[in-house]
C-alpha cells in the first residue's frame, strides 16, 4: 500500500476563495510591504524579477487573498491611472479608524474620512501610494435594505444641485 497523497482537484486551489482579484501596481515591491505593514497582510507568495519588481505575489488579508504584480504592458497589464479607479477594494477590519490613520501616515491619500455610513458600516476610503482605491470598514449594525436604498438615493440627490 502506498501513501500517495494527490492534491484535491477543484475549481480553485484548496484554501482560496473562488474570486481572486489580481491587481497591477506601480512600485510593486514597496506595495507588498505597505499591504503587509499597514493592512496587516500576510505575504503568501512573492516572486521577484531581476529588476526587483514583483512578477507575482499573493497577499492574505483576513480570510481573503489577492494577487498583484508590477505592470507588464506587453501583456496588457498597466498600473492604475493617476486619478480614480474603476474599482474599490473593501477590507473589513476591527478598527477602521486606526487602519485608515496608519495608511495615511504611510503615504496614502485620504479620499473619504472615516465615518458612520447609512449602510450601518463605519468606513473610510483612501488611495494607497501605489494607486489603488481602498475602503476600510467595520459593520456595526444591520439596516433594512429599503432604508439603505432610501438613504443612498437621498445621498446621491444631494450632489444634483
Largest β-sheet summary: 4 strands, mixed
User: Which structural class is indicated by helix and strand composition?
Assistant: alpha/beta
Number of alpha- plus pi-helical segments = 3
Annotation, overall tally of beta strands = 8
Q: What's the helical proportion of residues?
A: 10-25%
The fraction of residues assigned to DSSP E strands is 25-35%
Work out the oligomeric state of the chains in this entry: single chain
Distance between the termini: 76 Å
Shape: globular
- Mean pLDDT across all amino acids: 91
Low-pLDDT segments, ≥5 res: none
Provide the spatial order of strands within the biggest beta sheet: 1-4-3-2
Strand and helix order? EHEEEEHEEEH
Radius of gyration: 19 Å
Protein name: VOC family protein
Domain VOC: 15-139
InterPro entries: Glyas_Bleomycin-R_OHBP_Dase (IPR029068), Glyas_Fos-R_dOase_dom (IPR004360), VOC_core (IPR037523)
Structure description:
- The relative contact order is 0.15.
- The model has no long low-confidence stretch (mean pLDDT 91).
- The chain is an alpha/beta fold.
- It has helices at residues 28-37, 96-105, 145-158; strands at residues 22-24, 42-48, 54-61, 64-69, 89-92, 109-116, 121-127, 133-139.
- The longest helix has 14 residues, at 145-158.
Amino acid at each position: 500500500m502506498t501513501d500517495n497523497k494527490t492534491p484535491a482537484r477543484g475549481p480553485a486551489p484548496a484554501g482560496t476563495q473562488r474570486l481572486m482579484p489580481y491587481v497591477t501596481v506601480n512600485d510593486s515591491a514597496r506595495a507588498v510591504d505597505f499591504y503587509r505593514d499597514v493592512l496587516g497582510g500576510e505575504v503568501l507568495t512573492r516572486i521577484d524579477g531581476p529588476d526587483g519588481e514583483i512578477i507575482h505575489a499573493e497577499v492574505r488579508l483576513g480570510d481573503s487573498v489577492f494577487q498583484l504584480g508590477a505592470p507588464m504592458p506587453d501583456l496588457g497589464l498597466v498600473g492604475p491611472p493617476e486619478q480614480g479607479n474603476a474599482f474599490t477594494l473593501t477590507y473589513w477590519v476591527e478598527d477602521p479608524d486606526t487602519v485608515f490613520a496608519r495608511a495615511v501616515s504611510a503615504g496614502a491619500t485620504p479620499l473619504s474620512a472615516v465615518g458612520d455610513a447609512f449602510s450601518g458600516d463605519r468606513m473610510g476610503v483612501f488611495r494607497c501610494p501605489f494607486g489603488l482605491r481602498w475602503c476600510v470598514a467595520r459593520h456595526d449594525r444591520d439596516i433594512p435594505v429599503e432604508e439603505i436604498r432610501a438613504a443612498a438615493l437621498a445621498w446621491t440627490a444631494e450632489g444634483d444641485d
